[in-house]
Design goal:
Length: 327
């Protein structure tokens, strides 16, 4: 039996961080042996907000590909590629745009939130969820790994598939969300780790840079000095311990509550845990950066493999829509 198909992707925003690693990359790595995976670096999606300056786009794509591979993704097991290198994404998006009502797109929660907070009002931004649907359906994907916040996008994709199938016959499967349990990865300021908050620990950071960032991390606001009792359940440093410290976690919590463990020592322990976890990733990153042609070759090969599936889908779509005019 053929493997089920998974599609997922990320916008090329540059170096990935611990939140990306725990929230997506580790999950992808665990799935690549059991599924036929297409992992897309979505450069067209990035233009919805960064259209006015694309000077760093190529470098950000390269850095993202490096982080993908350094984290354990294997270009021979899954197709890793750049969205714009498979033009069928755009063709299917165009065809979908002819049949999908505008209110369907306006009701997507992320459109409402970001159009107000970021002041984005372009046609491309409105159509972002529809392009995302095309990204998924052009591979006739069975599953899409997402967190709960992305469920509205998957439901829209399912609605798009149903509407198309209702007009033209049963072409697309309705993809299922493959819910991912995200680890609690706070940033250095205690908020969710995000580039927009400038609170990240990047996979590309050196051991020294990581130590410096952890040294400045927010901790329990009620634990001001050595000897003060702490509250590890509300401390972002302890939240990272739960992800990266494999042994002695209960002892850290107990000695924090008693006041025996100070924040400086606690952060030093966390630094060791995170640096130990990142050492193999850093070593792989350094090797990949020293051989950039190998990274671009992975992306080219991934695009060729993705294009084969996408071309097959578009042949089915054009036939269903009676848009094959050469015979």
């Amino acid at each position: 039996m053929s493997k089920k198909i998974i599609l997922s992707g990320m916008q090329p925003t540059g170096n990935l961080h611990l939140g990306n690693y725990e929230g997506a990359l580790k999950n992808w790595v665990s799935l690549q042996d059991d599924f036929d995976m297409y992992l897309c670096i979505v450069d067209w999606h990035a233009l919805t907000s960064d259209f006015d300056d694309t000077t760093e786009l190529k470098n950000r794509i390269f850095e993202m590909a490096v982080d993908f591979l350094a984290s354990g993704l294997d270009g021979k097991k899954c197709a890793i590629f750049i969205q714009s290198h498979v033009k069928e994404h755009a063709e299917l998006h165009l065809l979908f745009s002819m049949i999908i009502p505008i209110p369907w797109l306006e009701r997507v929660p992320s459109y409402k939130e970001k159009s107000q907070s970021l002041g984005l009002d372009s046609y491309g931004f409105l159509g972002y969820p529809l392009l995302q649907a095309a990204d998924i359906l052009v591979y006739r994907a069975d599953f899409v790994p997402v967190g709960k916040d992305q469920l509205p996008h998957i439901e829209l994709t399912r609605e798009v598939a149903r509407r198309f199938n209702g007009f033209y016959g049963n072409v697309f499967p309705e993809p299922q969300a493959k819910l991912t349990k995200f680890a609690d990865v706070p940033g250095t300021d205690g908020r969710k780790m995000s580039k927009s908050y400038d609170n990240i620990i990047a996979l590309a950071d050196t051991a020294e840079e990581t130590a410096g960032k952890i040294k400045t991390m927010f901790t329990d606001p009620e634990k001001l000095r050595m000897g003060d009792p702490g509250h590890p359940e509300t401390c972002p440093v302890y939240a990272l311990h739960k992800v990266y410290t494999n042994q002695g976690l209960d002892e850290i919590a107990e000695t924090c509550r008693s006041g025996e463990l100070g924040c400086v020592a606690c952060k030093k322990h966390l630094t060791e845990s995170i640096n130990n976890a990142l050492t193999p990733i850093r070593e792989k990153r350094n090797d990949l950066i020293a051989h950039p042609d190998e990274v671009w070759d992975v992306l080219k090969d991934g695009a060729n493999r993705a294009r084969k599936r996408a071309v097959e889908t578009m042949d089915i779509v054009r036939t269903a829509m009676r848009m094959t005019y050469d015979s």
